[in-house]
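Course assignment 3, question 2. Fill in each field.
Student: A.L.
Task: Predict the tertiary structure for the chain below.
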Amino acid sequence: MNPHSRKVSVLQPDEATDHISGSVSAPVTLVEYGDFECPACCQAYGAVNILRAHFGDKLCFVFRHFPLREVHPRAELAAEAAEAAGAQGRFWPMYDLLFTHAQHLKEKHLLDYAGQVGLDMARYTNEMSDHVYLQRVQEHMLGGQHLVVRSTPAFYVNGTFIDVSFGLQHLHDAVDKALLQRS
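Answer field:
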């Protein structure tokens, strides 16, 4: 398999393992590799929500975990909490809470958020203590490593990396351009 086709397959939304907002048949797919403790990801969170609202059913948004453990020591556990919520059908409400409270990601906070989104708390507590979802988080990270993700947030629009280091407007422009190419 050549490197380009491996990149394309890694970036294909997988309904079994990905968190997807919108239809996988939408003309534009936006994949983000993110970290719940990352200040730049928190900034991007707002911009992504604006994009999702603006482009509606023309956009398929996929969020994948890429916790930068060395600089964000609570990010991996937060990703596990998001996965635990996802297993109970509550990924997106947990995703919202984690990004809006990114400065508060200690275990006690995650437990509080799990209650706020309506999780079965006994199940959540057991799964978190057993790190049931750590492998899923690590699989997302491995996919990002194949793509040579070095920092977060890392965005891909229809398989093309979009550099947002000079502003998130680049992301909006890339989605606009991808839509024009599809019409």
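Instructor remarks: The CA atoms of residues 82 and 94 lie 6 Å apart. The longest strand covers residues 28-34.
Grade: pending
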